[in-house]
Amino acid sequence: MLKGFKNFLMQGDLIVVAVGLVVALAFSTLIKSFTDSIITPLINAIAGGGAAGKGLGWSVNGQRIDLGAFIGALVYFVIFMAVIYYLIVVPYRAYMHRRGKTVFGEPAPTKECPSCRLADLPVAATRCPHCTTDLAGIG
């Protein structure tokens, strides 16, 4: 029973996911600090507000709609996803490619029905599932 549990814990996929989550959390903290300390004050300064966060936004019935905070969160998301992609996904893909495995590969080739223009049909499909057009001669 313990041997099976040990084998489960030592699976390559589980280790990769665990390391990825830890690295993602660390990058998340770093990038959140960057956006909170640099990007958000810049947005507030450009919009004419002060450091108190009264920059880009408006008030409606006493409630603050803070567009600057949303833009800061959007910048945070884009930076975070780019960092994860270029520092984790790209090296992992290259590593697995050297080992002869395909991960995050290109999607399978597809074709389009000439009658109803339904796309994403498998290349091997002989009949359109939407309009039942014969696709045998279409590549």
UniProtKB/TrEMBL annotation:
SUPFAM superfamilies per the record? Gated mechanosensitive channel
An example Pfam family from this entry, by short name, is MscL
What cellular component terms from Gene Ontology apply here?
membrane
Q: Name one GO molecular function term.
A: mechanosensitive monoatomic ion channel activity
The way it spans or sits in the membrane comes to:
Multi-pass membrane protein
Record's keyword terms, sorted: Membrane, Transmembrane, Transmembrane helix
User: Where this protein primarily resides, as one coarse class?
Assistant: membrane
- Subcellular location, in the record's words? Membrane
Bilayer-crossing regions: 12-31, 67-89
Q: What PANTHER family does this protein map onto?
A: LARGE-CONDUCTANCE MECHANOSENSITIVE CHANNEL, MECHANOSENSITIVE CHANNEL MSCL
Protein name as it appears in the record: MscL family protein
